[in-house]
Design a protein that fits this description.
alpha+beta; 4-stranded mixed sheet; 7 strands; flat
Length: about 150
């Protein structure tokens, strides 16, 4: 019994049907996943990850090759795995660059603290009847997609 692999995803079902027909015309058996969910409510498309086209393991390489030849898959839209890790870097007042790629394309990003988020939300809910979470500041580079936090000396 063959396993099925996701070969490509689309936001709208009609786009997936076009590619499904293309793959079927080349003798590759396909299966659409989450098509009915997205058809029932289009707003669910991003929540479920879009309409997925699945092919058998044995046909996966051939389907990737066909989709690249046809232009459905390009090197620019190939998904890249990015590690979401927060690094700690030594602080100095003149740090205006990314410590990894030395780019100036950085900004401060607010992220909720794991434990203190729930603790502060619970305390503020009890005393003020309002949920007010605690956030921590993290720097993010838009070029290399890394996140870091300066540690004080």
């Amino acid at each position: 019994m063959d396993n099925w692999k996701i070969v490509i995803t689309f936001t709208f079902p009609h786009e997936a049907h076009i590619v499904e027909g293309f793959l079927n015309s080349h003798g590759i058996e396909t299966f659409l996943k989450d098509e009915m969910t997205v058809q029932a409510n289009i707003a669910y498309s991003n929540a479920v990850g879009g309409v997925k086209i699945l092919v058998k393991d044995s046909d996966y390489e051939q389907s990737i090759k066909l989709l690249k030849e046809r232009g459905y898959i390009t090197d620019e839209n190939t998904p890249i795995e990015i590690e979401k890790e927060v690094f700690q870097v030594e602080y100095s007042p003149d740090n205006k660059n990314c410590p990894f790629c030395h780019s100036e394309n950085i900004s401060i990003k607010k992220k909720p603290n794991n434990f203190s988020f729930f603790l502060s939300a619970f305390i503020s809910l009890i005393f003020f009847a309002v949920i007010s979470p605690a956030y921590k500041s993290v720097y993010k580079c838009f070029d290399c997609e890394k996140e870091w936090k300066y540690k004080r000396k």
